[in-house]
């Protein structure tokens, strides 16, 4: 088949990306396309580029040899594909690794700089690539697109990522290709309008032209603003990705700061957290959260930040339970070893069931006693109601109480005959923000299927708890109400299902997840995954569930060949999600605080010349309130 050549060859798994690959091909072909062109770029995809040919592999290698770039759509299915492996091997043999661009569509793909290879948990890395790359490959994460129903260039996020791919293929700045796309789109609209106008009468032409001029100006201005925002977001993501792979601590910090300055989104906040807790940790001066006499692993609970921005922490110390006020330097010593604070920090619920009000000058007032706690309590947003499990001699009960212990309601919950349902993450509870409903996930040993759990919702009334609905879910995980209380999120094997609380019927598309272990949410857009086997604790971003930051953890070697976290090292959110704790320490997650820390470590503004050295992009940085120009 004679052909003039392709700018890109798409290699993919038909089972995984049979719908996405055509959308990517169309996006590349239409991006910055002139009205005179059929396509802006020639992209080979087997279903559109192959004629009937008895020598299928010969036809594929001919197209590969005629292509400038090899676009690998990486997924676990592609990693298991023999055909994809053959195409990778041919590309490496004829073009080398420098012409491979990886687009992640599903699964995990991480680069281990120490070993110079993909990380062990990278299930989307094809074996044909392992051990053959000398530097970190170019990776663009488009796994978010699996949740999208409209993958065209009218989707700003999709267009921004297409701009990044085109910029790499054409070896041009992202801003430049985005500007060219905006120009060509405006020009095409103008040509179309002109052609339509020529068919009208002279009077109609005058009217239409006047109207079109105004509409065109407004549309052009709006589109340019959209294109500029998309290009800026694409550049921010590029800087965030480079920050994550940077070995130089100063470069990691500067790139993360600039990424957030360009696009202050959750993903860029994750890059900041990854920089200050990872490669930049030796440069930053983290503010102390705890008084010197206490250690992070002693923390058992926290309130939300107070009016002064501090909040309160409950700690289990060698001498007993202590509550510390971080803004007023007040402390309360409480009987027992473990206490859980209400969100406002005004009360403490003991594991033994005793509830105390925290008054001025360290005074602790006994308020009431409830059945002792078998699980950590989960509080409503206003802190007045909470839910937990009580394991008594007569069986397990689901307990709902107000924060003074004066209105206790309960309902029996089924556990396995062997008690397996009482351990670890087997029980998970949630209470709606308004305190009117609860959800209970009990398992997995409640039924004959060993890895099934029972999910039940209840309405909270003055006379007790009324069951609303029940269903089964698989595996181990947590359940939570969304921030507005309109839906439930529950883990069911490898996905998080979105359910209606009153019926437990599907209320939205499920979210795919790849990390093991239960997720703990700070809010709808941020979740914390614990360390598990070889994986470090990670911050994930719903609804894509992409890992936006991995956090250090104190690890010890395990016989499995991976590492396990040390005892008592469960990662947890603190102070309403404004801090996070792992076994290796405490890190702030508030963007303003992280920016201040990073900019202090950078000694202010980074010069344009230095930033170009970090990023390989001619860009004047705006982070750290600097001009970005050399003095």
From TrEMBL:
Domain TIR stretches: 9-106
InterPro entries assigned to the protein according to its UniProt record, in alphabetical order: 6-blade_b-propeller_TolB-like (IPR011042), TIR_dom (IPR000157), Toll_tir_struct_dom_sf (IPR035897)
Region (Disordered): 291-315
Short name of one Pfam family: TIR_2
Keyword annotations from UniProtKB, A to Z: Membrane, Transmembrane, Transmembrane helix
TM annotation in the entry: 195-217
SUPFAM superfamilies referenced in this protein's UniProt entry, alphabetically: Toll/Interleukin receptor TIR domain, Tricorn protease N-terminal domain
Gene3D superfamilies referenced in this protein's UniProt entry, alphabetically: TolB, C-terminal domain (2.120.10.30), Toll/interleukin-1 receptor homology (TIR) domain (3.40.50.10140)
Name of the protein in question: TIR domain-containing protein
Species this chain originates from: Microbacterium soli
């Amino acid at each position: 088949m004679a052909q003039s050549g392709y700018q890109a060859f798409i290699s993919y798994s038909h089972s995984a990306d049979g719908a996405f690959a055509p959308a990517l091909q169309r996006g590349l072909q239409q991006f910055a396309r002139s009205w005179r062109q059929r396509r802006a770029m020639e992209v080979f995809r087997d279903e559109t580029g192959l004629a009937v040919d008895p020598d299928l592999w010969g036809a594929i290698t001919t197209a590969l040899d005629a292509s400038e770039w090899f676009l690998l759509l990486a997924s676990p299915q592609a990693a298991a594909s023999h055909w994809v492996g053959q195409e990778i091997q041919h590309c490496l043999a004829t073009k080398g690794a420098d012409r491979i661009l990886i687009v992640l569509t599903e699964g995990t793909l991480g680069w281990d700089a120490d070993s110079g290879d993909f990380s062990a948990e990278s299930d989307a890395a094809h074996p044909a690539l392992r051990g053959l790359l000398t530097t970190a490959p170019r990776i663009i994460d488009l796994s978010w697109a699996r949740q999208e129903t409209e993958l065209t260039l009218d989707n700003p996020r999709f267009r921004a990522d297409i701009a990044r791919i085109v910029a790499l293929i054409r070896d041009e700045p992202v801003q430049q290709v985005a500007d060219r796309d905006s120009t060509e789109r405006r020009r095409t609209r103008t040509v179309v309008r002109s052609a339509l106008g020529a068919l009208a009468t002279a009077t109609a032409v005058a009217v239409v032209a006047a109207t079109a001029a105004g509409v065109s100006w407004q549309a052009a201005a709006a589109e340019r603003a959209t294109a500029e925002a998309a290009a800026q977001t694409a550049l921010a993501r590029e800087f965030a990705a480079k920050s994550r792979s940077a070995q130089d601590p100063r470069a990691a910090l500067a790139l993360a700061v600039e990424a957030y300055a360009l696009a202050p989104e959750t993903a860029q906040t994750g890059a900041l957290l990854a920089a200050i807790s990872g490669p930049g940790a030796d440069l930053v001066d983290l503010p102390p959260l705890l008084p010197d006499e206490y250690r992070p692993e002693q923390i058992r609970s926290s309130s939300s930040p107070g009016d002064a921005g501090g909040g309160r922490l409950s700690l289990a110390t060698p001498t007993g339970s202590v509550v510390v006020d971080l803004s007023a330097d007040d402390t309360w010593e409480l009987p027992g070893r473990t206490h859980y604070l209400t969100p406002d920090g005004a009360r403490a619920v003991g594991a033994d069931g005793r509830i105390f009000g925290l008054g001025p000058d360290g005074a602790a007032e006994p308020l009431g006693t409830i059945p002792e706690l078998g699980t950590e309590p989960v509080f409503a947003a206003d802190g007045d109601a909470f839910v937990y499990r009580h394991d008594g001699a007569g069986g397990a009960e689901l307990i709902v109480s107000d924060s003074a212990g004066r209105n206790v309601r309960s309902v029996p919950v089924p556990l396995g005959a062997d008690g397996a349902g009482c351990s670890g993450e087997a029980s998970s509870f949630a209470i709606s923000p308004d305190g009117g409903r609860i959800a209970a996930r009990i398992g997995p040993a409640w039924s004959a299927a060993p890895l099934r759990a029972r999910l039940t919702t209840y309405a909270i009334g003055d006379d007790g708890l009324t069951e609303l609905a029940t269903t089964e879910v698989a595996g181990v995980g947590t359940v939570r109400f969304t921030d507005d209380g309109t839906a439930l999120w529950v883990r069911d094997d490898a996905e998080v299902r979105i359910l209606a609380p009153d019926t437990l019927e599907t209320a939205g598309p499920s979210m795919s997840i790849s990390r093991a272990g239960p997720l703990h949410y700070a809010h709808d857009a941020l979740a914390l995954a614990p360390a598990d086997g070889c994986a470090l604790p990670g911050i994930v971003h719903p609804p894509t569930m992409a890992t936006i930051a991995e956090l250090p953890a104190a690890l010890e070697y395990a016989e499995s060949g991976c590492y396990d976290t040390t005892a008592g090292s469960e990662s947890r959110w603190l102070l309403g999600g404004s801090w996070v704790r792992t076994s290796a320490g405490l890190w702030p997650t508030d963007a303003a605080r992280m920016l201040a820390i990073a900019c202090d470590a950078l000694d202010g503004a980074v010069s344009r010349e230095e930033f170009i050295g970090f990023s390989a992009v001619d860009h004047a940085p705006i982070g750290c309130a600097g001009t970005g120009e050399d003095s």
